[in-house]
Amino acid sequence: MKQILILCVFIICSIGSRADEYSVVIDSAASQYTNKQFDKAIISYENILAKGVEAVEIYYNLGNSYYKTKQYSKAILNYERAKVLAPNDEDINFNLELCRRYVIDKIDVLPQVFISNWLGKFTGIFSSDTWAIWSIMGFVLCLVLLSVYLFMRVLIVRKIAFWSSTLMLAFSLITFLCSWEQKKEVNSNKQAIVFTPTVNVKSSPDENGTVLFVIHEGLKVAVQDKINDWYKIKLPDGNVGWLKVTDTVVI
After folding, report:
1. pLDDT tens per residue, range 49-65
2. Is residue 82 a contact partner of residue 59, using CB atoms and an 8 Å limit?
3. Helices 128-151 and 155-188: crossing angle, nearest 10°?
4. How far apart are CA 102 and CA 217, in angstroms?
């Protein structure tokens, strides 16, 4: 038993030490960014991400650092990664639009069905994790109110508790569905940023395929399939074709 306790203390201390280490590195990167040492900040933030640490602020500041050094494709990539964690952050979306001005390709987006578009915007209000937290909170409140209904003897209180618990259950289910939909949207719609200055998109996944159209660095594409070293991609205007995996970086 004593050995188990020692082991637990050791694990907790190790986790705390690692958290402190990450905090120091993040603070250092933030200081470099604030002092406009963008090249140093880029190295620091990339090292943090390489260790598996992810946060909206890291991706956002890294995107800003790349933007300041005129590396627009890398800036777009990191803004998009930040947007996955915070879909409706105004600063991220504004800076992303600024970066897209430097993308050569200006592609019209196919119109969406109103309901589909509205649902997408609604579920995008929060990230999947935030919707999940709301769902758990709603379910806990439902259980608390249900306990009040079961154990209270005052009729009016029982009625209020019953209907309130029903509303909380409905709220929990709706937010759970929003979390699930947002997670499915992220996982099923694999996106990538083109990193090669000019790419010939082919009709088939081989070098001898017919060139269908040409796209350029910084454009976001949807990845639909992969065969060997080729991605099947779809553009916002509906055009589909194949390009080399090495021409893109997945968001």
Report:
1. 998 888 899 999 999 99
2. yes
3. 160
4. 9
* C-alpha torsion sign, points 141, 144, 147, 148: negative
Residues 37 and 17: their CA atoms lie apart, in Å, by: 27
Using 50, 70 and 90 to split pLDDT, how confident is the model at 103?
very high
Q: Note whether 144 and 195 are within 8 A (CB).
A: no
Task: Look at residue 163 and tell me whether its pLDDT is greater than 70.
Answer: yes
Burial of 172 (0-12, 13-18, 19+ CB in 10 A): buried
Please tell me the distance from the alpha carbon of residue 201 to that of residue 209, in angstroms, as a whole number. Answer: 9
7 pLDDT band, cuts 50/70/90, is very low
- How many CA atoms within 13 Å lie on the side-chain side of 21? 10
Instruction: Name 223's bridge partners.
Output: 190, 233
For residues 45 and 36, what is the distance between their CA atoms, to the nearest angstrom? 14
Pairwise pLDDT comparison (244 vs 189), residue with the higher score: 244
